[in-house]
Backbone:
């Protein structure tokens, strides 16, 4: 790849919210692609410019329907243009806003570090039992993975599968293990600093 192509790729990656390096990007795309099924409705939580979903549509050998939301209105507009066929599936929302939990999707991809509101909204999204949540982890993912394992067991999630490229990236697939119930804010706030978004 030529230097100007790398420059374009880096710009697209930054706009998608991906702050790690090129090696992590290629590792992540391979791992995430393994979890997408044909015909699935896939939501990127905090999609930025939509480049991850755009790339996944190129990387997998079958079609799926992309959805995304982000707080940055400009980036959402970029995503709508990049994925113009699916522009109606993109919205400007905060991940703490419960509106996105009503979307009918099969897989949600989340690269945020969890806070209480995001975790509760993830529980709402998975409440009917058919949607699964894919956490993508980079850099200090081992410590964060241990934190997520604890959160899963404490908050009614069940770990289904995980994959990793050592020292680069890890993905974790979860679903709700118990029936959905509203979780008290005080309980959610007891999760500890390791799960705060950075």
Residues:
């Amino acid at each position: 790849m030529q230097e100007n192509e790398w420059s374009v790729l880096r710009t697209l990656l930054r706009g998608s919210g991906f702050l790690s390096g090129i090696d992590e990007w290629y590792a992540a795309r391979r791992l995430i692609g393994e979890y997408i099924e044909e015909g699935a409705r896939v939501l990127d939580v905090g999609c930025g410019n939509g480049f991850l979903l755009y790339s996944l549509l190129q990387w997998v050998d079958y079609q799926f329907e992309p959805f995304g939301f982000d707080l940055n209105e400009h980036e959402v507009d970029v995503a709508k243009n990049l994925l113009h066929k699916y522009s109606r599936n993109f919205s400007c929302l905060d991940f703490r806003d419960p509106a996105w939990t009503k979307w009918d999707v099969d897989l949600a991809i989340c690269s945020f570090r969890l806070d209480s509101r995001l975790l509760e909204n993830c529980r709402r999204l998975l409440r009917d039992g058919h949607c699964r949540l894919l956490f993508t982890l980079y850099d200090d993912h081992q410590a964060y993975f241990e934190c997520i394992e604890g959160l899963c067991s404490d908050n009614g999630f069940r770990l289904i599968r995980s994959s990793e490229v050592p020292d680069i990236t890890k993905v974790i697939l979860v679903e709700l293990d118990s029936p959905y119930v509203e979780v008290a804010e005080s309980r959610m706030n007891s999760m500890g600093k390791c799960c705060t978004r950075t």
